[in-house]
Amino acid sequence: MPAFPSEFSELLTPKGLRILRGRDPQACGALLRVPPQRFIALTGVVDVKKATACRNALEEELRGTLTEMEDPIPPESLLGMTENYSELLPKTVRVRTALLGSPRSRSWRAAERVGLTAMLRSESFGTFAAAVSGRALRRKWGIQVLCYGPGDYSGPHNDHHPEDPEAQDGYVDMHVSLATPAVAHQWLVYAKGGHFSEIASVNTVGGITVYRLPFWHYTTPLVARPGAEDAARRWVLLGTFLDAPREHRRGTALEPTATQVSGGPRRRGR
């Protein structure tokens, strides 16, 4: 039997199901609030026992298929400077990823065996993102798996795509974190009021974070518990959702329910 259920909803706790059904005023439509809220971290929404079984399946089946993704600080960003305080830092990252874009890849075949791709493509996975974002989302969304080990991180970036007409006005990311017990800590730092002043732990087993991009954020280097570096990993299951067009036919988009949320009623579309 696959470790992952065919529907994301089967991993959810009663609290998670309330969000999925649009019945949690604190979480539903959170990314539509005024003043603007770009990020929310949710805990207690995924059953920890089920999430642990899913994480163990990733450890067993996908770990050996991962590909390194590394973009270090370019030397010219320091040595090429000609003026004081003119430094510019591009996005830097070190992490491993599972290539799910091709059925021929080892990662894709492993993800199929454990039922991961089916769950990430499930209706309830997309509907959960729509419920929290408060927006109608396109039904075809991108999926990805990341795996952070000791020292792995993602530097400050904003995930803005101004050259892409479908994403330039904003889009939604949803992450599910599955950390091993050997992880001591890892944090998501994000901007509020023009400063990197907010921080949330992502060292969770089943914690969900939802982003309204673009906005400035970074992920700190993963730190292992002393003597447990070989076992310290945080898996991230990721979905990227574009907004549905303002005018769309019924059934062609993932629709949030029309309940009232704190900060005002929900809107649809961009």
| Helical residue percent band | 10-25%
Mean pLDDT reading:
93
Shape assignment: globular
Q: How many strand segments?
A: 17
Report the order of strands and helices: HEHEHEHHHEEEEEEEEEEEEEE
Beta-strand share of residues: 25-35%
Category by helix and strand content: alpha+beta
N→C terminal distance: 40 Å
Q: Give the radius of gyration.
A: 19 Å
Q: Largest sheet at a glance?
A: 11 strands, antiparallel
Unreliable runs: 259-270
User: What is the overall number of helices?
Assistant: 6
Overview of the structural elements:
This protein is of the alpha+beta class. Helix content is 19%, strand content 31%. The protein is built from six helices and 17 strands. The strands form four sheets. Strands 1, 2, 3, 5, 6, 7, 9, 10, 11, 12 and 14 form an eleven-stranded antiparallel β-sheet that branches. It has a two-stranded antiparallel ribbon with strand order 4-15. The protein has a two-stranded antiparallel ribbon with strand order 8-13. A hairpin with a 2-residue loop joins β9 (187-192) and β10. α2 packs antiparallel against α4. The longest helix is centred in the first third of the chain and has 14 residues, at 48-61. The model is unreliable at 259-270 (pLDDT under 50).
